[in-house]
Amino acid sequence: MNVVYEDNHIIIVNKKSGEIVQGDKTGDRPLSDLVKDYIKERYAKPGAVFLGVVHRLDRPVSGLVVFARTSKALTRLNKMFAEGQVHKTYWAIVKRGEKREARGDTYCDDGEWHTLEHWLVRNEKQNKSYAYDRERPNAKKAILKYRVIGHTDNYSVLEVNLMTGRHHQIRCQLAAMGCPIKGDLKYGAPRSNPDGSISLMSRRVEFVHPVSKETIIVEAPLPNDPLWQAAATR
Question: In the 3-class helix/strand/coil scheme, how is 119-156 assigned residue by residue?
Fold first, then answer.
């Protein structure tokens, strides 16, 4: 387990793809339990360890996860996440899109920020979201901003900022743009990654500390993968 930041009130961990943040029906041991074990051992805590889960990452996604170590931090972080005061930046390796006439749903690789807007409908049974250009019953508006920060011949690396928080939003909207995330079979990638991951990571998190009021900025290291390294430096 890779702890990238910790103090008395919060702990930030760089999650591996394949790990679940919180327990689910699979019964697999979640990251939250591993963090509790770490805190208990490192600080010789007697009895049960308090740990609050304030947000999640999809199982095949890697990157930064913020946990609360105190009830005070948990209450305040929950409010901050709900009000959009925690700024998360994602990086994704996607199929390199075709250059087309600029519209709101087309791939642009000029290095500038572009906005995607869709209406997403979640299918609970399939655990999948579907993107539409217009509002429809049970749809929720989804907005993200992206820019191309690197590429290889076949793939682009996108930096993504979420303006809304919808189910599988990044995965669904990038696929709707014709740029499915590498390895994401559910959203149209032609093949899986060897380790079962998808090439999406929570790269950076920035927020005002809920107790000390200091600005916290943490960045996750890139995965140890030649494509990430090559694409991110071109």
Answer: EEEEECCCCEEEEECCCCCCCEEEEEEEEEEEECCCEE
